[in-house]
């Protein structure tokens, strides 16, 4: 083949390629034109019915979030109270330049939408980053003019947002837009706008902010709750340092200024800040706000005009407040606190909540945020787990004290009281630590954990046998939710405080959907409730004092008391068919509780609160019964082995022997009585004297004789009538804590 021929063929080939490429590019161009025309038509439809964005007032629109109780009464509003608009010359240059450097470094170059920022964000997200693409102008539009659409995640909203941002920049200068943004953005702690934030955190005007202070405030709007320096100083400081690095890289500050400021402390000087209004029931509405913050940003909560419908029953709440107030007043300790949560077992609805004595004095919610040791009130989960595993509540346990449950776990009852060999049901009424330690060993700790979790306990629960003694901190709301599972016949409902949320236009953005689960079988729940009823109704039960406060109430009541080391935490978790209530009494700073000069006990703290609450809400209400069910299928008692208890067959033999001896003794007494009566009759027939009339004077009260708590046991279980203060029930005690220590890889440094 000649050179000319080869060249000709090569030329022909290149022309072919050229013509092909041209065809493809032409096709793509035509396709692009067609798509552009179609997209243009679609975009035009999206830009119809835009809200008015031509007025400056449009960028300051804010409507309060309104909160309603179950009866439809307005109980709180979350709205802007602490906002003070300022002009550019009233703001520190550090704030002006730093905000641009951090939020939108090309703010002065783009026309409202930054293509480079979009590309940068897309690339960042492609490689796992989370950088946003919205400009300051877009953020202002989204939080104000398009606030009604801020829940919508769609291309349509982004197009509308971008269009208005571009139009806005034709109407206002960059500096005007920046000031609108700074006067609108939320800085946490109830402060809206840079001036309010400056006064709130540093008690000075925005024009007086130092570099350190300015960088601190610039960083907060990224996540106002997380970077709030009054709550999370470490996170705020880290964010402040990031802002300083951005300011340095953008030439806003010098290297010297950066070196002098980075890593230094943030010194707050809180000014006169007006917080959002928490309304009539501040602990409950603060809890509602906490729930909203899990799903909505702060701007939406405080400016979005939400309508929030809750489960709070005003009558039930009033009863709870009165019950707590009356009891604490009787005790006479102004520092003593109480928490109460009442839940409807059929729905999980929170009907009442007391989170402390005074919200203005301390906003920490003891009902939902405090995690205090549950003490013996946790034994209800061990009981349910044991019954669910086939253990009959009438099985016998050695409840003497102390016992060596294992080579490393020595357990004793409160005051080292011995109750003898008694049934599991009776051990529950007396709240025997030694008995329950053996039950936990017999069934295994994991079954207790699984049962508690299924019933509504969300806390991390270590699978150690000492868990049964209530050494883990649990909020009252979870205890009320878990006990409600028993009241409903084993059906668990999540605790619910919000039933529905609407946006400012009346559109439903959330509605609660009930999703109950069968946590316990009906049989197990019924059997557990029967045992827990004895804690309240049987002589020697640790909660019989409840009955002193329930005049007019004709309802079955069940529950369990709880007392922790040195009476630091005093509990009663009780329920009727209509309501489940968890009551905690103690100090915010953990310390022993003394009532009337003696160590506190649920009988004179938590039980009166529960009883008074029940009386105020259920007195005169027609009686209802707990859900009925057959007995569970129990394993033979002989199949269980307990570490400190004889075999059940040996116990039965011992009991038969004791019964025979008791019968012989009774027969002997009867014979002696007959002989005495015979002798007395003979003597009487020979006597003519008139017997003296017994005195009717008030030489002292006979009272009631406390029942003997178990065979061979001590009688220190207290007066079953509840008229006197019974000794604190099992609680956790030193031995319990040592048990957890020995059984756990965790070291409890406070024990050392």
UniProtKB/TrEMBL annotation:
The keyword DNA repair does not apply. Residues 624-732 are annotated as: Disordered. It catalyses: [GlcNAc-(1->4)-Mur2Ac(oyl-L-Ala-gamma-D-Glu-L-Lys-D-Ala-D-Ala)](n)-di-trans,octa-cis-undecaprenyl diphosphate + beta-D-GlcNAc-(1->4)-Mur2Ac(oyl-L-Ala-gamma-D-Glu-L-Lys-D-Ala-D-Ala)-di-trans,octa-cis-undecaprenyl diphosphate = [GlcNAc-(1->4)-Mur2Ac(oyl-L-Ala-gamma-D-Glu-L-Lys-D-Ala-D-Ala)](n+1)-di-trans,octa-cis-undecaprenyl diphosphate + di-trans,octa-cis-undecaprenyl diphosphate + H(+); Preferential cleavage: (Ac)2-L-Lys-D-Ala-|-D-Ala. Also transpeptidation of peptidyl-alanyl moieties that are N-acyl substituents of D-alanine. Residues 339-586 form the Penicillin-binding protein transpeptidase domain. Residues 653-676 have a biased composition (Basic and acidic residues). Residues 72-247 form the Glycosyl transferase family domain. GO terms for molecular function: penicillin binding; peptidoglycan glycosyltransferase activity; serine-type D-Ala-D-Ala carboxypeptidase activity. Residues 710-720 have a biased composition (Gly residues). GO terms for biological process: cell wall organization; peptidoglycan biosynthetic process; proteolysis; regulation of cell shape. SUPFAM superfamilies: beta-lactamase/transpeptidase-like, Lysozyme-like. It holds the Pfam family Transgly. Residues 678-696 have a biased composition (Low complexity). Keywords: Carboxypeptidase, Cell shape, Cell wall biogenesis/degradation, Glycosyltransferase, Hydrolase, Multifunctional enzyme, Peptidoglycan synthesis, Protease, Transferase. Transmembrane segments: none annotated. The keyword Repressor does not apply. Residues 636-648 have a biased composition (Polar residues). InterPro entries: Beta-lactam/transpept-like, Glyco_trans_51, Glycosyltr_51/Transpeptidase, Lysozyme-like_dom_sf, PBP_transglycosylase, PCN-bd_Tpept. In the C-terminal section; belongs to the transpeptidase family. This is Penicillin-binding protein.
